[in-house]
Hints:
about 250 residues, mainly alpha, elongated
Amino acid sequence: xxxxxxxxxxxxxxxxxAELQPILEKxxxxxxxxxxxxxxxxxxxxxxxxxxxxxxxxxxxxFVREFEAKLNALKxxxxxxxxxxxxxxxxxxxxxxxxLRSRIDQSADAAAYILAxxxxxxxxxxxxxxxxxxTDIDECLKLLDNLEGAERIVSAAxxxxxxxxxxxxxxxxxxxxxxxxxxxxxxxxTQMEPQERLxxxxxxxxxxxxxxxxxxxxxxxxxxxxRLERWSQSLSNVEQFAHSQTGE
Length: 248
């Protein structure tokens, strides 16, 4: 069903919190001028705003989908994946991500397709579908092997879900391998929360000890020691700040 995008945006601007209105007005103007790259940046600005989550799903379904073919496919998938995090019903999340993946042309936009499939695999894993998760991971890895110059967001999504899958299976050696590959694709200091960093370091250490094909535990400890100390200090600082705010 085609909607009047200008009317939709006008209504959204008038009903949104005052803090969101300038961004939405910018989006409306960029859309009217068909400045797709600038519009994409403005959409990410909207998604990053702390007051936008309650509006994101309707914004995507009622607005973004009307011109999604004009957008860079990888950016579109990134927008869609971020939007899906505002859904709470498992079936709705899986349906949303499955639909998103089905609208990406695998042959023309392999990187975007891989990101969509890896995100769908992560959702399946979260809801206990280990078989479906493994099927999607295997396809992702095969496609990634044939993809030249994959962007880090794509590789991180694939290795991240693979690591989480093997963690769920308590399969230490492949968890260790995929977790290190994931860390090579992200900046832990800026893209991971302090608690997540500590948990990752702990899980790597355990997998290095228990994995029957891992022999470089000493090297792992040496590489993690400095970061673990800094991450622990960061977590301590966060906890101290939280206590100061609550008066505890």
